[in-house]
Amino acid sequence: EDEEIVAEIMGRRFFPDVIAYKAWEGFHFAGHEIRITEATDCYGAVVWPSALVLCYFLETNSKQCNLVDKNVIEIGAGTGLVSIVASLLGAFVTATDLPELLGNLQHNVLQNTKQKCRHQPCVKELSWGIDLEKNFPRSSCHFDYIMATDVVYHHPFLDELLLTFDHLCKDDTVILWAMRFRLENENLFVDRFQTLFDLEMISNFPSLNIALYKAMRKGKMK
Q1: Segments forming the whole domain that contains residue 93
Q2: Is-contact 130 120, C-beta < 8 A?
Q3: Percentage of residues in the chain having pLDDT higher than 70
Q4: Any domain includes 222
């Protein structure tokens, strides 16, 4: 049932005609050609299909989900594709990931947003569960949206991930989260996530095994 829309989403990706000095993939979103440099030796520096699903949603639901002048943070930004698209759609974006990924992330964000965006995005280190109040104090950090793609997979930091969602999320913050279900870890984390947040599936792509969710703090979903 989802084959047509999945084909459209995946059709946003293109590849260079000739081999370049640095390997890159291209994407068409938000009226721009976006070039993403990947690092194939690092799990977090590859564009996964869940990122394309979220980017497609942001672009095709720009009235329902108006990002203009909104404060957005992406956790586990990886190559930065989602952060770049959110920036091109008018948001003020903070793209975050582990320190070893920040160089490539900064390169991609700068290359694809400089002099193209209403607000220049920033790149910041965020190791889940570590120094959250120091680096993102509750008193001064307010995010309209938290975005995440494929942050739940086979890793031992699910407690820290949930703590990070909890710390960054205010009563009116909307979480947009795309996830590919691979292992039982995903289902277990969703169960734990729902102890703190109301969760609504807004898109489902069985052929990709990917679901896109909207979440807010319990009792705050409109």
Answers
A1: 1-217
A2: no
A3: 93
A4: no
